[in-house]
Specification:
Blueprint (H helix, E strand, L loop, with lengths): L1 H10 L1 H27 L16 E4 L3 E6 L2 E6 L8 H8 L4 E4 L2 E2 L9 E5 L10 E4 L7 E5 L8 E4 L2 E9 L6 E5 L1 H7 L5 E4 L3 H8 L6 E3 L13 H37 L2 H9 L4 H40 L14 H16 L2 H9 L2 H7 L9 H24 L7 H30 L1 H5 L4 H11 L1 H39 L4 E5 L7 H8 L4 E15 L3 E9 L2 H7 L4 E4 L8 E5 L10 E5 L5 E10 L8 E3 L9 E8 L5 H11 L5 E5 H7 L6 H31 L2 H9 L4 H40 L10 H26 L4 H5 L4
Parallel strand pairs: 6-11, 8-10, 16-21, 18-20
Antiparallel strand pairs: 1-12, 1-13, 2-3, 4-12, 5-6, 7-10, 8-11, 9-10, 14-22, 14-23, 15-16, 15-19, 15-22, 17-20, 19-20
Helix pairs in contact: 1-8, 2-6, 2-8, 2-9, 2-21, 6-9, 6-10, 6-13, 6-16, 6-21, 7-11, 8-9, 8-10, 12-13, 13-15, 13-16, 13-23, 15-23, 16-21, 16-23, 16-24, 21-24, 23-24
Amino acid sequence: MLSVALRTLRSRWITFVGSFVALSLGVALIAVMGLALASSLHAPDRQPERFAAAPVVVKGADTLRVSTPIGDRVQKLAQPRAVPAAVVAKLRKLGTVVEDRSFAVRARGGPGDLVGHPWSTAAFAPYGIDAGRAPRAADEVVVSGGWAKPGERVRTDHGTVRVVGTVAGRGFEDAVFYADARAAQLSPKSTQLAVAADPAAARAAVSGSAGVRVLTGDARRYADADPDRDSEALTAMNAMFGTAGGVTTFVSVFVVASTFAFSVAQRRREFGLLRTAGATPGQIRRMVFVEALAVGVLASAAGCVLGAYGAPRLATWVVDGGLAPDWFTIGAATWPYYAAFATGLLVALCGVVAASWRAGRTGPTQALREASVDSRPMTWGRWLFGAGLLLIAAVTLGLALFGDPGDLLHRKTYVSRPMLLITAVALLAPVVVRPLTQLIAWLPAQLPGAGGMLVRENAAAGVRRTAAIAAPVLVTVALAGSLLGATATLNGAKATETREQTAAAFVVTPAGGAGFDAATLRGLRAVPGAEVSATSTSAVYVLEDGVALVRDEARAADPGPLAATTNLPVASGRIGDLDDGSIVVNEEWQHHTVGERVRVWLGDGTRKTLRIAAVMTAGTGNNGAYVTPRNAVGASVDRVDVALTKGADADAVAAGLRAAVRTSGGQVLTKDQWVQASYPETNRTTRMGFLLVLGIALLYTGISLANTMVMATSDRVRDLAVLRLAGATRWQVLRLVGAEALMVVAVGGVLGLLVAVLNLAGMWSALGLLSVWTTIELPWTAIGVTVSACAVLAVVSSVVPASFALRRRAVELAGVRE
């Protein structure tokens, strides 16, 4: 049978080339994503930046460490603590102590990420004066980056300043250096110090002060603005490449298996002839497996080569797009090649199992009879797996809805759930292909001429062919609708929450990152007709089950003004009962009974036991805790909600609010403007990751669709010849072929849309159970582009080979044997 298999490969080269292309592209995708994921597991060691020349940096407590039976649990504090005054006094005896401060600066004509520092810290980077001199007065600054020159006056959110000097940029920040006294006014809190002292002596001075750290050598990087950006970038890249890798692996395996199964199903007449000639079922199966093995080995090897070529291109794209840091490159890992090769070979062999088994056990006469029409497209195995997967999808959805609806809103859930449903619908597709084609083609079939009737009957008769060609369209439309629709639906739900919870007429936000100062808050509260609620961003930490230290976002607010400016979704209790000894939590907390006392750690790490004053619904996950300002020491006011008192004029209040923030800088927004400005948007990395996934899926399924259409059209040469002999013109046949391609794309699009709607209906139900009612958002633009691209590819890929075939005489084509 080996010689027969090799001759078959030569004689049916179009079919095997199609399988080769599909498999090699699938292996290439798996290799690319594997290489990208392997390269995102480790980051290079980052050196200190702002304090590269500092002998010692002493940093106040910025983490919370809690002991549990299974080890210490650590969380980053929302409000890091300053170095204790007693420790500072000891350090001053050892050498010069320089207090570090950092605060956001907005300057007209300057970069958008300007950050202010005291001039005394410039020497630790080190920064050196290029032109001009150091700042001395409160309105003098030195800038980096060359965007302003000495002598220029620049308007900032902290007042108009005069540039008296410039320093060369260091590449990691755009800095504005103020005189030390002015920097202390703009940012009173200092959480780290640069000390000119012996490291051992500094460690002795801070001993006994909980959480205070002495940083030397490479550890000084932890004093930089964002020391964890590399690890955070790695986490984001791991999530992006992991998601992309999982989805593209599913897509490639799905399409390759479908292509291989279709290529075997095309050859039933050939198998029937072999059975008639005396071949045993085992010989048929062995022949098919040998062919799959040969194609699988060659295609998998070619795919690995393509993957090695494509991975660096992907790395360049994600770096240029800002999704990865500049240092990201593809490493020298080898396991992705082994994994991709093994997956490709396994898919090639598994893709022909069911079809070869059916071909091997079918009798010669029956095989010849089945060669023209699909009389039994659904095997028992296909029924079993399709119905089983559909049942599993329904049961898991029901368990999630009645157990933990919030789990359906997590990215890992709404990314993975469509895979199960896509596979189930694809397996059961032959059941619905015939009635679906009858429905779609009903109107064309009523038109004059036989074209519409032929399209309908051809698609309905070739159920396996229609289902196999529709599979790439199904998976692409389902992924586009499910992934983009899930994020759009979730964002819409969050926007609905924001709108319903905001009762204020105006919301005032600071211009910089330091928050509002006391003078500005007094001015806002003095505006006639304004009910002002000033709130701060903080956090609380709770130990759940005795082993998990969970951080929950919190806002600090006075209860009276808070109740007047918000409509919080209270499930039990009263917001007005909030005081310094209590807390407002949501239903996701392990303990959420009004009156119950819970042990928490506040944003600065202070341990405290608070009484639950009220409980909010969980919602989409944005309903954090509420505490009073006394339980958020060090948190600056970063939002002011303003309600109108009875009879107050909205325009007059707005004018008063703008006057109150004119000096310090701030933005006064109406409720609608605030909702629009704070409209939750998908994380950029997540959005770009989804676009990467969908782009790859569309490209791959598009090529596979074209490939499968070429295979299917080449297999119908005799059918086209019969139409020509029956009197159809060449253009009539080509129009029929194009119409059949559009029919198949329509079938795949409808099935993919059905999968997307079912997935989004599950998310919509979960949101309803969480008391958030919104509409299902289907990404019609993305779906339309996907279906249109598939339609163009399908028509071209079917009409072009048919056109070439029809150049021969119809009598010659009718004599072609498959």
